[in-house]
Amino acid sequence: MILSKRQVIAIAAVLGVAGAAGAAEQFGTLFGGSGGTEFEQVCNMGSMSGLRVRSGSRVDAIGTRCYQDSPVNSVLHGGGGGSLASSDCAGSTPLAKGIRGRAAAEIDRIGLLCTDAAKISSTAMQEFGGNGGTAFSFACANGFSMKGFQGKSGARVDRIGAICSNRAETSTDL
């Protein structure tokens, strides 16, 4: 049996392995259905500052926009339908703090909760997709910001969740 990184961290926390409670990475709630192939997309340098989306009535594909000196696009996970758009969090040190949207068997709508490292409050960014499904929202814990996404995709994005990281680990600016 091969365990994912998420499963190893969860097992370590249950067993009380040193360092698990103060882990630099946290995995958020997964929203959506069970179809598709698993993916994980993270910003290895800098912090997550926005997203790229292909969408119509649902979210067809998703990717991160990472900020170091300027925004950098990641690959897209999902299909080629819908229209391509991207949006970035605002501020001098933009950070994605969480996700919100709508989901059922697939992700119907997606957007980010944003903050600036110098501010305490979060603001909602533009959302992409349709109005089906049930509303969801997830914000990273205090001191953490989004590092990327985890989920499942095929022709569309079936499932999505946030990967949060200690801010000191995600940005050289902080």
Provide a concise account of the structure shown.
By secondary structure, this protein is mainly beta.
Oligomer state equals single chain
What number is the mean pLDDT? 83
Helical content band: under 10%
Number of domains: 1
Count, helices: 2
Low-confidence stretches: 8-21, 169-174
In the CATH hierarchy, the architecture is Aligned Prism
**Alpha-beta content class:** mainly beta
From the structure above, extract its key features:
disordered C terminus; 174 residues; 5-stranded antiparallel β-sheet; mainly beta
Question: Explain this structure to me?
Answer:
With 174 residues, the protein is mainly beta. Helices cover 9% and strands 52% of the residues. Strands 1, 2, 3, 14 and 15 form a five-stranded antiparallel sheet that branches. Strands 4, 5, 6, 7 and 8 form a five-stranded antiparallel sheet that branches. Strand 5 and strand 6 form a beta hairpin. The termini are far apart.
